[in-house]
Amino acid sequence: MAHLLHVDASFAPEGSTSRALGATFVDAWRAAHPGGTITYRDLALTPPPHLDWTAVSAAATPPEQRTPGQNDAVKLREELIGEVETADEYLLSLPMYNFSVPSTFKAWVDQVILVGRTLRQPPERSAMTGRRATVIATQGGSYGAGTPKEGWDHQLPYVAHVLESLGASDVELIRVEMTLAPVNPALAQFTELFESSLAAGEAAARARAAA
Asked: ∠ at Cα 174 (173, 178), nearest 5°?
């Protein structure tokens, strides 16, 4: 039975393009996988704590010697890692904030990467080995080749490298750009570009989910 882990990272409960595209993917995935199950992790609703020394030291401390704080840190980390390990497909719905990923997503990455368990060498022995991952990335501007901010995208390259390090062998990156055009008068001239990018993203999400 197929099992999808869906991670949403937008802090906006409504009006979020990344959430809407994630929902489009999920609807198509459910139709293509009758009986499939989904674990949903909303990083805005339950933001994971940033990794600290308590959590890091707990991993190297025998269970009987851990402090109460270390036990709490291990419990949460085990929950997040367990969601990754038990899924056979991943959907990451991510807006771009300040040229990169939301800090809650970075915290999630730091929690689920555990050297020797989810991250191994070679990467083919890591947690996502042989599994599919889809990244839906929304961006307020445009950062592709030839644009004024070419090279400023620290969102998609970072996520792609994280997935590669975790062993994901089938990764698709779906980018929707100029999402601020409909709400920022200074970008209104790019509204048609946003609309075409959104339509392409929706089509790509449906096709990927059904594949």
From this structure: 130
